[in-house]
């Protein structure tokens, strides 16, 4: 019911918030950073990702405050970024190209992950159990960069279905500006979806030790198959995808992502500071925002400021436990937020409230674009 909102009384600078919400993704980049990198306290990292499996899996995004690449949330992030760009791209102005760049940083990586199809789909890099014990900059990390995949014998229809959705949605973003790349995206999406459909099963069952409790597939995999089919139908207009959506959609019951619960969407100003604490939960936006977020790169000094290697234990002892604000401001990052009583401790150790994530930012880009485009 957007028409009932009194826009005149809004005091937020949505254009600034939009710009910063997209800039956040540069700080989450893995791989070789380009010369025009704007978040200058980050440097290239994880340049050997995939080597343990004799494949190139460099690039993509670290999902949150850690240094692991989990493809399930990364693919969802990509789908949501693409969806927001498709719906509100005309309202983004100069930020439209930045949004496309953010999407492509993920899809370039997801395409690499599908290069060995139909034998296997790579779905992540980095041992989360070891990584989460360390407090290291991405540029310093020396934990195992274990490669994870799903296959016909160890299926993962959920992560594959979401990957297909991401690639299909992104193909629509690039359809007019880069037709060749768009065709590659949709072709890869079809290949990945065929794999998801043919070898059905939850990736939590195949890779539980590596993805749970971090990103278990609690809802099963049928929702991702439906989601992937829906985006492929939009991208191709192929009747077989339509038939899948029609046959599955009638029996599946919606859960959180539904028409019924709109409370979070009706509060996008609460996040920006219209709350009892008058605190912005977007880092770098407004005068009062979280200063000690749960994020390794933000809380550790940059390579430029501290070129010496910072080891796992040293990072924990000297920086994770430090009472000081993070030395690098992770501009645009939206943190988990306050508790149910509108309290926020700004505690680096409280990851459930103080940690940002790509999929949080991806969901807010579209709404911010909508409001920033209003007169």
From TrEMBL:
Keyword Transcription part of the UniProt annotation: no
SUPFAM superfamilies: Six-hairpin glycosidases
Enzyme Commission numbers on file: 3.2.1.4
Domain of life according to the entry: Eukaryota
InterPro entries the UniProt entry points to: 6-hairpin_glycosidase_sf, 6hp_glycosidase-like_sf, Glyco_hydro_9, Glyco_hydro_9_Asp/Glu_AS, Glyco_hydro_9_His_AS
Active site: 294, 346, 355
Entry keyword Hydrolase: yes
GO biological process, one term: cellulose catabolic process
Glycoside hydrolase family domain ranges (all copies): 14-267
Keyword terms: Carbohydrate metabolism, Cellulose degradation, Glycosidase, Hydrolase, Polysaccharide degradation
PANTHER family: ENDO-1,4-BETA-GLUCANASE (PTHR22298)
Family note: Belongs to the glycosyl hydrolase 9 (cellulase E) family.
UniProt protein name: Endoglucanase
Source organism (scientific name): Senna tora
Organism lineage string: Eukaryota, Viridiplantae, Streptophyta, Embryophyta, Tracheophyta
């Amino acid at each position: 019911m957007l028409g009932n909102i009194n826009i005149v009384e809004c005091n937020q600078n949505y254009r600034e918030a939009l710009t910063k919400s997209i800039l956040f993704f540069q700080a989450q980049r893995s791989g070789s950073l380009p010369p025009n990198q704007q978040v200058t306290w980050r440097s290239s990292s994880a340049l050997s990702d995939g080597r343990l499996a004799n494949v190139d899996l460099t690039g993509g995004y670290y999902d949150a405050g850690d240094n692991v690449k989990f493809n399930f949330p990364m693919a969802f992030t990509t789908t949501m970024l693409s969806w927001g760009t498709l719906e509100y791209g005309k309202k983004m102005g100069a930020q439209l190209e930045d949004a496309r760049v953010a999407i492509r940083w993920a899809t370039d990586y997801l395409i690499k992950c599908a290069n060995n199809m139909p034998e296997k789909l790579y779905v992540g890099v980095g041992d989360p159990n070891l990584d989460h014990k360390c407090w290291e900059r991405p540029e310093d990390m020396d934990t195992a960069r274990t490669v994870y995949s799903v296959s016909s014998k160890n299926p993962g229809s959920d992560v594959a279905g979401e990957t297909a959705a991401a690639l299909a949605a992104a193909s629509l973003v690039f359809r007019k500006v880069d037709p060749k790349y768009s065709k590659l995206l949709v072709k890869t999406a079809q290949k990945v979806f065929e794999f998801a459909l043919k070898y059905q099963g939850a990736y939590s069952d195949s890779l539980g030790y590596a993805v749970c409790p971090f990103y278990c597939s609690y809802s099963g995999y049928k929702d991702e198959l439906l989601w992937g089919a829906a985006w492929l139908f939009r991208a191709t207009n192929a009747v077989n995808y339509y038939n899948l959506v029609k046959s599955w959609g009638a029996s599946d019951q919606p859960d959180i992502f539904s028409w019924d619960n709109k409370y979070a969407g009706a509060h996008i100003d609460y996040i920006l500071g219209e709350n009892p604490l008058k605190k912005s939960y977007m880092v770098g936006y407004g005068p009062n925002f979280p200063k000690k977020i749960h994020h390794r790169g933000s809380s550790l000094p940059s390579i430029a400021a501290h070129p010496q290697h910072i080891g796992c234990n040293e990072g924990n002892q000297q920086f994770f436990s430090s009472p000081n604000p993070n030395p690098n401001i992770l501009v645009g990052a939206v943190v988990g937020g306050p508790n149910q009583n509108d309290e926020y401790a700004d505690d680096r150790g409280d990851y459930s409230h103080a940690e940002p994530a790509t999929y949080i930012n991806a969901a807010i880009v579209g709404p911010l674009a909508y409001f920033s485009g209003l007169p």
